[in-house]
Write a structure and sequence with these properties.
By secondary structure, this protein is of the alpha/beta class. The protein has 13 helices and twelve strands. Helix 9 packs across helix 10.
Length: about 325
């Protein structure tokens, strides 16, 4: 475990980010973290949810570890301090505060003042209405890291064997996946995944599986030629790089227990091919991990949940898992 605390961003203030952070602190079983948020917002939220969570304002990340056992540390920025919110109703006027919290967390992680970043979910439409020019967190974090190619991995540690999935195309409409899928993208994701499995997960010889795009992985071109034309050449290049990789394999045979035991991560060709099996295995415990960054970033594998935000019934399991995985990765990099 690293000594520096984990920086947690505010996320969408109208969503469940504050609630799951309060509930996670209340368990007293998570790595030390601090929120970059509005202390008064969190105090009001704790009171409304009847959570016995004292909030303490801090002025530097280093203070968080010292006060964490007694209170939830909150680092306020001028923009976050001014946030006005109504649960369930996002307001683009809060976009500057949401982005400022992300920027501050990245800055603290890059100086080592924060061991890692856990980002609370953002409401992308609300940010984009205020001029945010990125599809989501992953792309923005790559931008803050100097234009690095950031890769999204989703992971669940239970049930065993674990499942780690990487969607090569992410928020791409299904009708465009076949035209936007490239061998270069598969190769880049495969290289980033293998490097992260070695550095962050302690797997000396990572094993990758690569899913096909079409039913039965195309049946040698009878049901689509993307496997032979795009995916197989990418797999060949990854093998030439010295990576243990197999595929393209039919996606419907890749996710049962015996199949998962044969690889450490699987490259999927589109969003739901990756996310459906992962959320079926462990809906509450998934973690979003960004690969390819010079700092550690994880996130709960769910959205802002605006529909349940006013009800106080949010499950903090994924947030807790994100904190724990962030701490493990940070410790692995420190070692």
């Amino acid at each position: 475990m690293t000594r520096a605390p984990i920086a947690v961003t505010m996320g969408e203030p109208a969503g469940i980010g504050g609630e799951i952070a309060l509930k996670a602190w209340a368990t007293h079983t998570v790595p030390p973290f601090f929120l970059i948020d509005s202390a008064s917002r969190l105090e009001a939220l704790a009171e409304s949810l009847r959570l016995d969570v004292p909030v303490r304002r801090i002025t530097a990340a280093a203070e968080a570890t010292r006060v964490f056992d007694a209170a939830l540390p909150v680092l306020e920025l001028p923009k976050t301090r001014a946030v006005a919110f109504a649960l369930g109703r996002p307001d683009p006027a809060n976009a500057a505060a949401v982005i400022a919290a992300i920027d501050a967390a990245v800055a603290l992680a890059r100086t080592g003042e924060a061991a890692a970043i856990v980002t609370n979910p953002i409401q992308k439409a609300s940010l984009q209405a205020a001029g945010f020019a990125f599809p989501g967190h992953t792309e923005y974090l790559g931008h803050l890291a100097g234009g690095r190619h950031a890769v999204m991995m989703l992971a669940v540690e239970r049930p065993q064997p674990p499942l780690r999935v990487i969607p090569v195309t992410v928020h791409t409409p299904l009708a465009r996946v076949a035209t936007e899928l490239t061998a270069a993208a598969i190769i880049a994701c495969g290289r980033a995944t293998a490097a992260a499995l070695r550095r962050d997960f302690g797997i000396a010889q990572p094993r990758l599986a690569v899913a096909g795009l079409n039913p039965h992985a195309g049946e040698s071109g009878k049901i689509g030629d993307e496997e032979t034309r795009i995916i197989a050449p990418a797999v060949a290049q990854l093998k030439a790089d010295g990576i243990a990789v197999r595929g393209p394999a039919p996606a419907d045979t890749l996710f049962h227990d015996a199949a998962r035991a044969a690889y450490d991560a699987v490259l999927c060709m589109y969003h739901d091919q990756a996310l459906v099996p992962l959320k079926t295995l462990d809906f509450a415990g998934g973690v979003n991990v960004t690969l390819g960054l010079p700092f550690v970033r994880t996130s709960p594998d769910h959205g802002t949940a605006l529909d349940i935000a006013p009800r106080g019934v949010a499950d903090p399991t994924s947030f807790r898992a994100a904190l724990e995985l962030a701490a493990r990765i940070a410790a692995a990099r420190g070692a």
